[in-house]
Amino acid sequence: MKRILIAEDEATIREFVVINLKRSGFEVFEASCGEEALKIYDEQNGRIEIALLDIMMPGIDGITVCRELRKRSPNMGIIMLTAKSQEMDKVGGLMMGADDYITKPFSPSELMARIDALYRRVKLVGSAGEPSYGKEITSGDFTLNLHNRTLTRNNELIELTQVEFQIMEYFFTNPGMALSRTNILNKVWGEGYFGEEKIVDVNIRRLRMKIEDEPSNPQHIVTVWGLGYKWEA
Questions:
Q1: What's this model's pTM, rounded to 2 decimal places?
Q2: Confidence at residue 103, expressed as pLDDT on a 0 to 100 scale
Q3: Which domains does the chain have, with CATH numbers?
C-alpha cells in the first residue's frame, strides 16, 4: 500500500485531496495541524513515503514540519501546498527540503500527476538495496554511487534528497556540458511537469549549500548565464 500524509487545516481542501488520493490507491493519514502531522509520522515509524504539507497552519507551520520531516528522512517525498500570494514561502519550503510545491487551487489531475511522479522517485530510492561500489561515477573529490544513491566527497557522505540526487546524476553523466533549466526540469521532474522552471534554481541553491566551499562563489555547479548550469570537478 502506498502511504501518504496530508497536513491541511482547511477541512474542505483536505477532504477533497483525501478522496482523490484514496481513489488512486493511497493509504491516507490526515492531520489538521503541524504538531499532529509530526506525531502521525513518528507513530508510523517512518513508513510514510509522501507528505503533502500546507504552508499556513495553526501552531507549527508547514515549512517547520518540512524541515523536521527532512531531518527524519532524506528520502521521503515532500510537496508543499501554497497560495498564489506565498511566493517567498514557496522558496522557503523548497530550501527546507521540499521536493515540489502545488499552488491552490489545483485540479485533481495536476495533484495526482505531481504525487505519482514523486512517488516513483521515492520508490526508486527505496529499491536500491545494499550498497554496490561497482556502480559509481567519480568526479574530482566527489563520488556518486548509482546503486545506493549516495554522494560522497573525500569519502564523507553528503545527504541528498531524491531530487537533488537526480540533479547530481544528470551533472555527473554530462560533465562540463551546459544544461538548460528546461533540460534539467524535463530530466528530473519529467516532461509532463506542471510547475515552473524556478524550482530548478532553488534546488541548485540548496545543492550549492551542501557541496560548495563558498556557495556564493560556486566552483562546481557553475551558472551558465542565460541558459542554466554545468558541472565542473
A1: 0.81
A2: 87
A3: 2-126 (3.40.50.2300), 136-231 (1.10.10.10)
